[in-house]
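Justification of resources, computational component.

The compute hours requested in this renewal are based largely on the per-chain cost of generating structure records like the one below. Each record pairs the submitted sequence with a full structure-token output. That output is archived, and it is also reused by downstream analysis tasks.
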Amino acid sequence: MARSISYNAHVTSPRKGWYFLFIPNELLGGTGKRVWIRGTLDGKPFKATANPSRDGMHEITLNRQMREAHGIDSEREVRLEFEVLSEPILDLDVPDDLARALEGDAGARRTWDRIPPSHQKEFIFYLDEVKRESTRAARLAKSLGVLRRGRHLYEDPAKRFADDLK
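The structure output for this chain reads:
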């Protein structure tokens, strides 16, 4: 179980429209690397990435969605209760057809579990951007073939799926 951390942070807005929280590195285990945190911000659930910043601090960027959810519209003090995670929490909405296909294909599943979430999102977008079911079915089959060979969509950004899809 991760250690729970409590900290009062000041919301900073150095430029109009940009809001940040700064957390001392020592609260995050002394690392100078990016860390993922989950907990509450003024009593409301949140999760964020804390990136190394300046002067022994990590910064959390508060995007519009996060500010609106937590009622942050100005610089002020907030209460953080959080834990440091060993890996990011991602909300990937894997389509049902892709999830079923991965359950039935061990080779594709191994690659899927190994590739970064950003690459998983590319497969999801590749399936979701089509209009016709026949095109979607063809793309699903091709995606599984790429995954089965241990590949991912953008190994060479200049060639979408490259020769795997010919």
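Strands lie at 4-10, 20-24, 35-41, 44-52, 57-61, 77-85. The helical segments are 64-70, 96-103, 106-114, 117-128, 133-148.
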